[in-house]
Amino acid sequence: MKLIILGKPSSGKGTQAKLLAQKLNLKHISTGDLLRHELKLKTPLAEKVESYMKTGSLVPDSLIIELLKNNLPNDDYILDGFPRSLSQAEELEKIIKIDLVIDLFCEDDLIIKRTIERRICQSCGAIYGLTVPSKVPNVCDKCGSSLYQRPDDNEETIKNRLDVYNNETSPLIDYYKSKDLYFLVDGSLQIPEVQELAMKKIATIK
Length: 206
Ligand code: ADP
Ligand code: ZN
What we know:
By secondary structure, the protein is α/β, with parallel strands linked by helices. It has one domain: Rossmann fold. Helices cover 50% and strands 16% of the residues. It has 9 helices and 8 strands. The strands form 2 sheets. Strands 2-3-1-4-8 form a 5-stranded parallel beta sheet, sandwiched between helices. Bound molecules: adenosine-5'-diphosphate (ADP) and zinc ion (ZN).
């Protein structure tokens, strides 16, 4: 099974993708995580993408598509953060057949609040924030490591990321509707509720 999880930044894509991947035994492929990994390793690609990521703009297609192709497994997966534009969706269609697109919808106000509150474990990648804060501030519940804030999770950059979403990514909604692959979930619901709605829908396509 090949799934796409769509939504604005902080809509819960990463959280839900991780849960779905565990439950359904899928690989979780996040282009944001792949890019941050490149930055951490200071690869040649990192230099090319850093400025785009800092401001929340899209990394050029040629770079992101190459990175994705190099990291797509042969077995089943859930894509998180790709595609982010019509041109990327068209590219993807040349490579694989998608079974379902799950879109997590949230209003912009909530997105801004969630993004500013978001903290990530530097060692295991667990995500904390507005709805699920860590028990001890800045310490991961799961592994005890310290939490960090993504450099692009600030008020200025999130506004740009929302503009990018509205201009470049939101046309994917009609694109996938026209292919009868689109499923909308209210992303403002609690994590387990979102999860249940997504799982129920997935059960109908298996
Ligand atoms: P979020 O969904 O919270 O905005 P991601 O971790 O998915 O964050 O992406 C972080 C940044 O990485 C984006 O703002 C963008 O600069 C870059 N990026 C990730 N995926 C793509 C993509 N498919 N195309 C272009 N740029 C991307
Ligand atoms: Zn952790």
